[in-house]
Amino acid sequence: MTVAKTTNGGTSWSRYHLTTTSGFCYALAVDPTTSSIVYAGGQGGLYKTTSGGSSWSKITGSISGTVYDIAIDPGNHDLVYVAAGGGVYKSTDGGSSWNNLGLSSATAVVIDPNDPEVIYAGTSSGVYKSTSGGGNWVQMNEGLTEKDVTALDIDPGDYLFCGTDGASMFRWSLSGPEVSSRGSSWVTFRWVTPVRDRVEVTYQLKRAGWVELLLYDVSGRRLVRLDSGYRGPGLYRVNYPGRLAPGVYFLRFNHPLGSRIGKLVVMR
């Protein structure tokens, strides 16, 4: 595995052989505050230099699989994330040690510079978001027709961009509607808010039982029963049969084990 460096705009290059065996280098990340610190990852693992490439140390540690992407926190250069075959990994000490944050077959990782606790990861099964520095993940595949992600990048505050294998590029607005969710040990249900027209609710039922999904206006008046009946474990999708006037509404999901309530905003 080899990397190359130029100091004259590409007129000439210096090559650094990081491994004695062949293998592709898929990822490079330069420390945004100290340019002499560089991370390189690929089929040969993960390497780091603190001397601008003069010498390299292997810091793969507990990282499993090929390294496909590296992200360094712009405000804390000791905080590093890696996307690899074995999942997403995090280091808080500049690569001396690594923690596996879960997921699998990770190919891309991005830190939101406006909030370093917000992390996006691309995998062979789609895109995931964490708002706790990788402590937990929520899948965000709405509109993603091809889930084999190859690249992610971010325009802070505006868009998240996603490249995939076989279906071109996608983007999500970071300033538009959010996917809200309410969950428990027996159900997780999600909806987009605010919306302008179509209202769609999905729920992942973990325990079988008689369910009921109700929609209320802001005064507490029940408008419609969106779904009801005995349901086994699985994923269900429910749409409101019509258009709602702009305003604030509430969703209530009932199950023998309890109820969950969520707020829905409809805009003009």
From TrEMBL:
Transmembrane stretches, by residue range?
none
Q: List the Pfam families.
A: Beta-prop_HVO_0234
Q: Which organism is it from?
A: candidate division WOR-3 bacterium
Domain of life assignment: Bacteria
Where is each HVO-0234-like beta-propeller domain found?
A: 20-149
Q: Name one GO biological process term.
A: xyloglucan metabolic process
| Protein's name according to its UniProt entry | HVO-0234-like beta-propeller domain-containing protein
